[in-house]
Amino acid sequence: MLGLGIIGWIIIGGLAGWIGSKIMKTDAQQGIILNIVVGIVGGLLGGFLLRVLGVDVQGGGLIFSFITCLVGAIILLFIVKAVTGRSRV
Fold first, then answer.
1. Beta carbons of 47 and 12 less than 8 angstroms apart
2. 2, 13, 64, 78: which has the highest count of C-beta atoms within 10 A?
3. Could you give the count of Cα atoms lying within 13 Å of 74 in the half-sphere of its Cβ?
4. Which residue in 74, 54, 50 sits closest to 1, CA to CA?
5. Please, what is the Cα angle at 31 between 43 and 45, to 5 degrees?
6. Which protein family is named in the record (predicted)?
7. What is the pLDDT along the chain (89 residues), one digit of tens a residue?
């Protein structure tokens, strides 16, 4: 995903964060900026977890990057909900 540049990170992160927040039912509490942040941080988290599992994340392509961001965003939202004990992120 490094080849996409900052605009690519924002677009992919925003979409992944938004869809992740829809899946985790936190979208009503989040705005577009928080969706982007959740998606980008989720991408970093997802990439880290895949590397730990031995998956080569370099050169995975746009779809692979999006899925990595989406899964990472869902995991991040789940952790935040579990730690805070609330549905608000």
1. no
2. 13
3. 10
4. 50
5. 15
6. Belongs to the UPF0410 family.
7. 455 677 877 888 889 989 999 999 887 777 788 888 888 898 889 888 988 998 877 777 788 888 988 999 999 999 988 888 765 55
With beta carbons less than 8 A apart as the criterion, state whether 34 and 20 touch. Answer: no
Handedness of CA 6, 9, 13, 14 (dihedral sign): positive
Q: Which amino acid is at 30?
A: Q
**Token reading at 30:** 């989040």
**Quick one: tokens of 61?**
């392509």
Counted residue by residue, the chain has a size of: 89
